[in-house]
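Here comes my example:
=====
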Amino acid sequence: MIGLVTIILITLMFPKTETIETDYVTGMVWSKEDLIAPFSFPVYKSENVYKKEIEEARSKVYPVFDVNNVKLQNSNWLDSLNAQIAKLIKINSYSIELEKEKSLPEEKRTTSEQTLNNLKSGLSITLTEAEWNSLKSLLNNDASSDAFKKKIIQSLNQVNDKKIIDISKSKITAGKISFIRNKVEETIDLQEVRDENEAKQIITNDLNTYYKNPEQASVSLKLAILYIYPDYIYDDAETQKILTSVTEAVPKTFGFVRQNERIISKHEPISEAAKLKLESYKKIRNEQMGTSDFFQQQTGRFLFVSLMIFLLVIFLYKMRKAIFDDNLKLILISTILLFQCVLSYLSLQLIINYPIEYIIFVPVAAMLLTIIFDSRVAVYIIMVICILVSAVRGGDYDILIPNFAASVLVVYSVRDIKKRSQMFVSMIYILIGFFAAIIAIGLERYDDINIIKSQLISAGINAVLSPILAYGLLIFYEKVFRVATDLVFLELSDFNYPLLRELSSKAPGTFHHSIIMGNLSEQAAKEIGANQILARVGCYYHDIGKLANPDYFVENQMDSNKHEDLNPSLSAKMIIAHVKNGIKLAEKYRLPKEIINFIPMHHGTNLVSYFYAKARTEEGELDTSHEYIYRYPGPKPQTKETGIVMLADSVEAATRSIEDPTPAKLETQINEIIRARFLDGELDECDLTLKDLTKIKQSFLKTIVGIHHHRIKYPETSDDEE
């Protein structure tokens, strides 16, 4: 199901049709065979040229206006102006009389004020208190009233010497306007008309110059603006109709390619005309694709992706069975595959005139896979990723080699990573891989130097950002998928880790025993090619269960032995319980599964031999059916590392008790322990071979001899000499 979902999602990311060559640009050399037109098709103009021609055609369209019939109907505006001024004179007179009669009773005065307000509301303009006061001097007699009216008429006549339109002239780019008169189109030069804003500005300037009092100028302006009528009204519907017809009349094509005509030849530089032919061919081919063609193509893509995933599955099944059997790890690999394909898909959706295909961050996948799994898994999956990334971009296999080169070098750079900061060194390897591949391919194809330069810049961005992205994603995968990488193991090997600190204080003997075991196991793992970091850290935590009752284990006992007061079966239960207690404690501290496995597996199904022998001595011939009481629950070691730790645990404990340890005695003891574990079948389920066991024995001996080396005996001195 994981594989099927992955295949379907990747297939859906493919472009609608496979591109001819995704990144062809002007100046690039056509590297494929001659491209012959399988059908006739028109050559489309470039998008920029077509838009420019449309803009030029639309700019020549004159906006259409209608004659304003309202103005014709309001030709007697002078009578209306006289009526407005007469109302102002009446209101002004009534207001003056009302001020003189301040001694009127309150009720009568309120009625008069209401009458005045009603007269004011009948006006077509609204004035401020200051403007009403300014009318007292403007309309105090017939002469001043006539002068007021004549000035307004004079200002209006200044603007009516030209026709007025109802939209801003700044919006008109054609230089002329048109209108229909008696079913005949007429045009007027834009300089021969005014817009309403321009007319208002002329009147405003004239009145402000004439009147020194700003309130008087404001009253005159408000009254004059009432009688500014546009001569022509903009007809948006008719104008848009003409613009649409003009736009449709602009041809989208400029040439024609006949069937069997050569579109472009191999090794021919891509000119602007050739590029337009290629784009036109691709466009027509996409349009001609039917439903059956679409499903046929999708089926082919599904089979292609399935083949890639199948090859990956076969590799995991044959070479990395542990990964194949772990669904969580398969989901992890699937997310990395999908992440890379999504980046590839997005690089096609972003319309940017820049080689962003080199910023798909394939090296990030290489770093994650190497750190989480191993270099062989990483290289194999990276091959699949590079192919899928190129396929999702519509068959853009030009980026396959640069991505693969950079990713393989990254694998080697983080193969033996010891700390997270080392990830940032990988940017140098990414740069080398990308630069070498891009320059080599560019020179081989005679690519333009500017194209190579832009590709190198994109690759440089990739090199800088990849370690940063990988750093963050690694933490994400470690937390979400509970992935235990060597970096996690190294962090757990810090003696300041709470669990180890507690072990060193409460069970110092066990802690010291674990440290020595760690040295033994690490060197042995190194000799046989196992994970030496995992083996060492597994030793540090293999006996954490003894924290529950540290005094019941001999290495932590300072004086008395608490088992002297217990019967053998109870003592055996106390000893065996440290396995169960250790697993609970490890789960509480959320230790990785790989570390927890060491707790039960380092004992396997061995007997607690001391108490078993004691029970047989005390109880005589012990019934074999009761042997399970003295046997660890298992399981037996499942990996090389847990097998090494089982042997190291027995070897360290046994060699510590040898008196006067010589290399011969130590070698004999190590041989006996390894032989006993082998014959008991405790190593049957791990991958250790006889050759591995020989190397482990030699490694143990070398390390143990170093620990138990002979020391110089200093001569004793007398009290007087002291």
Remarks:
- The CA atoms of residues 551 and 557 lie 6 Å apart.
- The radius of gyration is 47 Å.
- The chain has a mean pLDDT of 86.
